[in-house]
Sequence to fold (339 residues):
Amino acid sequence: MLPSVKYLFVLTSSPKDFFCEQTLVAIASLRVHNPNAFVTLLTDDKTAETLTGPRAALKDAVDELKVLTLDEKFTPMLRSRYLKTVMRNEIDGDFLYMDSDIAIVDDLSIPDEWRGGIYAVLDFHTNLSKAINRKKVLNNAKMMGFSPILNDEIFNGGVMFAADTLEAREFFKTWHELWLYCVSKNFPYDMASLAETNYKFGYVTKKMDGGWNCQLAYGNRFLPTAKVLHFFGSRIIDTRGRKVPESMNIFLPKILRKDFYTNLKSLPVTVNADKSIHINEYYDDVIAHAKDAFMYQTNKVGAAGAYIIRSYAFAKSLAWLYKNVPVLVKPLEILGKLF
Fold:
């Protein structure tokens, strides 16, 4: 008997990256707030071969593991997008798909009205006409010969609910075919093909509340009621081995530090009989209180200040300082003590 919903993650990874560790953290956060969740992992054959040693904990953490054998010539990026666009036709049952650069911070019980449909959150939490990447999105669609997105909506693919219906399976089949077409044109990204699929199916994708995919750089208004915090990989900052004092928590929460994931490679992970995940007191606390770290930012610097320090520009600048002029991080460390 299928569970009422599966919580689905897709993974393409090697020991050289930290995507496996990110996924483990995401699942650990899911288990904190949804202890009875049925978790499915869809991965490729090359990745599955690497899930040994410490990385094997990820297999223990899920309830269902499915491995697809893909073209060995595919790059990791192509493997990831391939899996994502075929996932509806490879996994049985309704599912809530989530990217790995997230933290689940609340109950994810599926609303009854979603049953039978496809749901997602608008990209950047706004209509395309107001989005900062509007020109890029429209140019990409034009370059691929796709429709000009007449409904003014682009959905973020980081969190998607898909019922197990014939329509949803056909939707994903078309998405996959259009993505393969994009790949043939040396455009391997999946957002344009998703938008075109939605157009071809009469804009069937419906809007979730923004809290189901709170995109931190743009979703401040959804943070208090957020269920899923979506960091995006570009917000994970490499502190280059520099010791980060507590005063920096306001500018760089622990869960956004690259070494939070890379250090996990060498730590023992316990998956208990009930599938709850224990790492150590530090990790367990950060994972369980991920939302608190961002609410702390808002409480200290206000909504406007939080918007700035969660922005891509701030993250890019901070990463540049850590890499090139780490001494200039010191003023931020001092500033953090004043709040």
The longest strand covers residues 155-162.
